[in-house]
Amino acid sequence: MGDIEVKVLRGINLKIENGEFAAIMGTSGSGKTTLMNIIGCLDVPTSGRYVFADREVSNLSDDDLSVIRNEHIGFVFQSFYLLPYATAFENVLLPTLYIEKRKDSAEKHAMELLRLVGLEERAKFRPTQLSGGEQQRVAIARALVNNPELLLADEPTGQLDSKTAVEIMNLLKKMNEQGKTVVVITHDQNIASYARRIVQIKDGIIFE
Hints:
The protein is an alpha/beta fold. Helix content is 35%, strand content 16%. Helix 5 (132-144) runs parallel beside helix 6.
């Protein structure tokens, strides 16, 4: 059974422009998560090409892909993935540990981002002391700390109530207006409507 190849994506031809706000929308099993993993350099395609920032990445080593992920792509996930024993400030700083960056400038930037997402006063709070929306704001600040070109958000409001979801999407919209390329993966039409372009995927094929 392990040798059976299942084609999840078929004939995908997609270009996302620098500075764009795009939503990739599809139901469970549509292929949107696989497409997100390729866009985010978490997986590589078994055939075809993927070019990120004018660089062909399909044949890069795991180490090279790791560098691209850490320095050029910011990830926001449904489950936040914050370290429970670390403060909000420490969680935001985490990605800077893997690149050469002066500690004082990294810490200053982390605090600026917490201020940007409205959590400067909660910098010393741990995740259990924060609401779900506040935890997602910390995750967004963490995604931005290495100043990535691309912000990739996978169902970023999936664990949030509708009011908080609106706040998070408005924050992502603000990031896009400030020049970040934002790609949101979602099954929710309301969330997708924040994007300037909606890419519909079904059975591994882009149909709209």
